[in-house]
Design goal:
Region (Disordered): 1-20, 77-98
Number of strands: 5
Structural class: alpha+beta
Number of helices: 2
Radius of gyration: 17 Å
Shape: elongated
Distance between the termini: 26 Å
Largest sheet: 3 strands, antiparallel
Helix content: 10-25%
């Protein structure tokens, strides 16, 4: 799943907690990359808890739950409520197939091609 703001894809995580953050936008789970988290106001675009106002929401099994106060509500299932996909800007980084091949090489201990 890419970053909802810039379209960057997650890479293989290092050890420890992921620097990416989760949020909910139009009742759908989204991710926020570390670069977008550095920008002011990134959390303003996300849905907020109607009970406490927190943006620390997660969407799972058809429910949206606040991680701050525990308030839970049913997610809207309308297709028009789905957030617009982000078009990633063209970059010099390798495509998805090259990233997958590199990850397999690392896991299987093969030398890079």
């Amino acid at each position: 799943m890419p970053c909802f703001r810039c379209g960057a894809r997650q890479t293989d995580p290092g050890r420890g907690a992921s620097p990416w953050r989760r949020g909910v936008l139009a009742d759908h789970q989204v991710l926020v990359c570390p670069a977008c988290q550095a920008a002011d106001g990134w959390a303003d675009a996300l849905d907020h808890c109607p009970s406490c106002g927190s943006a620390a929401l997660v969407c799972r099994l058809g429910d949206v739950e606040c991680r701050e106060c525990g308030h839970t509500r049913e997610a809207v299932r309308e297709e028009e409520a789905r957030p617009e996909p982000v078009k990633a800007a063209p970059s010099a980084s390798p495509g998805l197939s090259e990233e997958v091949a590199a990850a397999l090489d690392r896991v299987l201990g093969r030398p890079p091609a």
